Amino acid sequence: MYLDDVQVRLTVLYAIRCCQVSVSEDMFQELIVYQNVMDYFTMMNCVYELEKMKMVKSMVIDNETRFDITKKGLSSVVMFKDKIPLSIRDKIYDKAYELNQRAARGREISADIVPIDEKRYMAKCGIYEWGTPLLEVSVFAGGKKNAQDIVKRFEKEASSVYKLILEKIAEEGK
Questions:
Q1: Which residue blocks in the chain are alpha helix, DSSP H?
Q2: 141 to each of 4, 61, 110, 174, how far by Cα in Å?
Q3: pTM
Q4: How confident is the model at residue 20 (pLDDT cuts 50, 70, 90)?
């Protein structure tokens, strides 16, 4: 699909606006390039033009350049977003929703009680980041009360448990 210069600018601004976090080049690619909206060079050229126009601002976070929309850019995209074809807005919105969900997940702590039989229980605990397991532990707890205590303690002290396990593993290797 051919987009004119105004539509290209509005599309980039719309992509940033749809995200709840500052947008990296990788995120831009997921939002725009991989959705076959425009090519990488057109997109990044537009981002830098918008930065010169003070509609986008950049910052470096963890050695990665990220972009945010300014008030000027936000007012433009709110006023003229109808100039972007609906099919493109839908693609970007859906992908941004997915990226926002991924970002919102961040670090998760999970702890559940699993019955083995009527009187014996296990505690299954885990720490996940962006859905990837950092630590998963299944512990035989004996009775239900012990399993509940393990779950409560893990939920409260998951980061210190994780740190302790990593320290012990690193200590063994020395």
A1: 5-18, 25-28, 40-52, 71-80, 86-105, 144-172
A2: 64, 43, 16, 31
A3: 0.61
A4: confident
